[in-house]
Amino acid sequence: MARHSSAETAVDPVISVRDLTKVYGQGDAAVRAVDGVSFDISPGTVVGVLGPNGAGKTSAIKMMLGLVTPTAGDVRIAGTDALSNTTAIYRHVGAMLEGARNVYWRLTVRENVEFFASLSGFDPRRTADYHDALIERYGLEDKADTPVRELSRGMKQKVSLICTLARRTDVIFLDEPTLGLDVETSLDLRREIRRLTDDRSMTVVLSSHDMDLVEAVCDRVIIVRAGRIVADDTVENLVELFRTQAYQLTVGSPLSEAAKGRLEHRYNAQGWERIGEHVRFEATPRSDDSVYTLVDELQREAVPLVSIQSLQPDLENVFLELTTEAARPKTQNGGER
Amino acid sequence: MNALLTLTRAVARKELVLMVRYPVNTLSNLFLTYLFFVLIFFGGQAVAGPALTASLDGIIVGFFLWTMASLSFGYLAWSVTAEAQWGTFEQLYMTPFGIRTIMLVKAAVGTTINFGWGLGMLLLLLVTSGRSLQVDLGTVLPLGALTLASAVGIGFCFAGLSILYKRIEDLLSVVNFALVGCIAAPVESVAWLKAIPLAQGSYLLRRTMDGGIRLWEIPAPEILLLVGTAIAYPAAGYYVFRWAQRRARRKGILGHY
């Protein structure tokens, strides 16, 4: 799996967004859904756009796709001004926006694929082999002539993705591609999304609340909060950025109030939890060495240490940290601070 | 050009596949239209007696026209609502052809299919009423196409409004009945009514079908007026559609339903 080590673009970006702003309504009722967002996306990468509900990610994505007109800003897709020449970008961009709802349920799988390929001008009689290969790739060859309404949600989702791919664009946007899927289908789709970039050099922009998906497939993550980008970096860098030397400690007996106060003050101890005879808490010493002084302090208090465990942050922690608290300044690559 | 043909074939194929795959839905729509005519015909005979017979040819031609106008107008307006509900409208929007070309192709395909249904319905009406009309295809087809163009224009207009206002089904039903008024407009006594949608075409079709008049026998100003409405209403409808989809994009509600 080829992962990019940095969010910086070394080649000409396939998507370039500058000062993108969307204000809905006017006067006192005006809502600034997207607030001066800028970033570039390199070809052949998978970029996740994350944010809580109402953060502005859907508005931003739909502006990139030409489905919502920005109040201000520029979007260029494959070098084409997406705002003044909207239809031209659809030779480069396809999107699966509403998962299983993107296709005609009364048509069969094959009829859907042929119809959506035709929407991009591809004669289905000349691209039948490609369509068959796509259907087979996603394991729907037995269902090719079945009306979509008779398929499971996961299969419908796959049909929607196949129809998006049948348009043969270089860039695809996927909105909540694993929403409502069972674990197995979700894992399957996850592999397929990664394969699009690794095998076919496609650029994938996906929006999802599924952190496991984002962590597994994305080269880069853009986190949006209140219409602004609060983080824009690789998954690894973001996790590293939020890595604090946090530990979970379990001790064999309760601590005195005075000892607890000292630990809270000096080691940022919190999350006290009584488990039978044991007490569990989390501590964040101010330097790597001070975990030893913390252990020494426990020994001085005659409190037996049962276990100590280093806590590893994941993307979900990063996301929650960035979107539920006021975002603190960070060193990030590209985008807004 | 090849790409446009591919698109047209795809839209036509989709419509025909759905029509054949769901015949009950298709046939029940036609049966309801036919039932409506039978009620008018036999109900009218019971009430008006022989007086109805004098205007029967006009009723048949008018009903034939209303069937097609209703189908053509409704096809565009309803399809936007339906596509939005299915989640496919934004997919239609995101094509290199552009949504307006897609809608024009849908309009052309829909009107052609509806013309076929209209002719089938006309035959049924004639068999039911025991009447005969002089149907010269060289006259009826161009006149019918020019007449329906204004219905397509209204369809575009309301397709645009449904992008903006979403649930306008009740309004569409009202407009559907207003089409009856347009078709039956007394253009011979009130000349300006010839400018409203369908009225001039309906008048000329009635004259040709029950009077055996050929296309070239119709006075040029009458034809020109029909051509004028056939251009003006689709142009106005297209403009409203374009305005509505731009406004919907500004408001961020293009794919809402």
From TrEMBL, chain A:
- Where the record annotates domain ABC transporter, the positions are 15-251
Asked whether the UniProt record includes Chloroplast among its keywords, one would answer no
Q: Which domain of life is it from?
A: Archaea
Which molecular-function annotations from GO does this UniProt entry contain?
Answer: ATP binding; ATP hydrolysis activity
- The residues forming a coiled coil are none
Q: Where are the transmembrane segments?
A: none
Check the record and name the CDD domains matching this protein: ABC_DR_subfamily_A
- Please state which protein family the record places this protein in: Belongs to the ABC transporter superfamily.
The entry's protein name is: ABC transporter
Name the source organism.
Answer: Natrialba asiatica (strain ATCC 700177 / DSM 12278 / JCM 9576 / FERM P-10747 / NBRC 102637 / 172P1)
Automatic annotation (TrEMBL), chain B:
InterPro entries with a match to the protein in the record: Nod_factor_ABC_transporter
- Protein name, UniProt field: ABC transporter
| UniProt source species | Natrialba asiatica (strain ATCC 700177 / DSM 12278 / JCM 9576 / FERM P-10747 / NBRC 102637 / 172P1)
* Phylogenetic lineage: Archaea, Methanobacteriati, Methanobacteriota, Stenosarchaea group, Halobacteria
Say if the entry is tagged with keyword Disulfide bond: no
**TM stretches of this protein:** 31-52, 58-82, 103-127, 139-164, 171-193, 223-241
Keyword field: Membrane, Transmembrane, Transmembrane helix
